[in-house]
Amino acid sequence: MSMLHLVNKSPYENNNVSTASSTMRSDDVMLLIEDAVYAAVKGGKASTMLEGHKVSVLGPDLAARGIAEDKLASDVDVIDYAGFVDLVESNDKVQSWL
Amino acid sequence: MSDTKKFLYINRKAPYGTIYAWESLEVVLIGAAFEQDVSLAFMDDGVYQLMKGQDTSAIGMKNFSPTYAALGDYEITKIFVEKESLEERGLTLDDLQHLVWEDEDEDWAEKDSIRLVSRAELGDVMAEQDVLFNF
Amino acid sequence: MKLTIQINEGPYQHQSADSAYFFAKAALDKGHEIFRIFFYHDGVNNGTRLTTPPQDDRNIVSRWTELAQEHDIDMVLCVAAAQRRGIVDDGEAERNGKDATNIAPGFRISGLGQLVEGGIQSDRLVVFGD
């Protein structure tokens, strides 16, 4: 019974990435979209909250914000909207941390 | 009853500053008629929704906090409050409304609706659900 | 998979309506079914046909209308949220004595039960908001 944790806010604006990461169970996946993609930038204070979790980032939102993939923490998957749909399908439910 | 699902309404926003808390409660009340297995969770700023003693008379808004006390009448008896969120905010259960329901099977004995859970326990509760509602 | 999508924010102010749109399109492209798109809170503002964005910007409202018509998607604006925010169809105008309507083609106004039903009937509920 795995869950997809959808986060859309910058970790430098509010606690949603932190709340999501501390609620996640081992099979769960976190998907960073919109302003949450900033959480995946390597060396950023927030990237430590992603350690030990399965994390994907929405590529179109990264590109829009000028973040090249080589700026990301190494174990983060970059996916497109089709990949987003696949994650919704492969997990049993979706939790949107709004 | 294969068409009964486990619904969890997750409340993470404070009341009055934005409308999310009130409009989520409206979904919970309407949803009660669908006879699903419903639970509510309050975490992060959502715990402020349950504060005792709310008085909105001087801000021109409806005080909807009494509605939480009526949830038992809608057969909503599982209300999870996250411990860490309360503690971070300097609150205890005594700061919140005392929510109860009456157990028909035990001669209408009054029982507590609120269950204090840790974040890890709430994660387990979430994992057991079929549908998570977020507002 | 059968999906219900919930959108909690209006167009332009937040990216959520855009994210939801691209997600919906990708799901349809993959052959999934969208049971319903439910617009709640300020999300009901996605359904006003009076929106007039600048020519070089996307028209979020007509984009929804086209998607709904092309794929026969049920797009519902919550009635309580719509009444608060002045989104009106013929029925609402008559019931509440309003002198105009502004609902965009492809949308309908209905109750919150439609969201709950979406949760019951669909394999997944995906919520986009602020």
TrEMBL record, chain B:
Gene3D superfamilies, A to Z: DsrEFH-like (3.40.1260.10)
SUPFAM superfamilies assigned: DsrEFH-like
Domain of life: Bacteria
Family annotation (Pfam families): DsrE
Membrane-spanning segments: none
Similarity field: Belongs to the DsrF/TusC family.
Name of this protein: Intracellular sulfur oxidation protein DsrF
Organism of origin: uncultured bacterium ws643C1
Upper lineage: Bacteria, environmental samples
Designated gene of the protein: dsrF
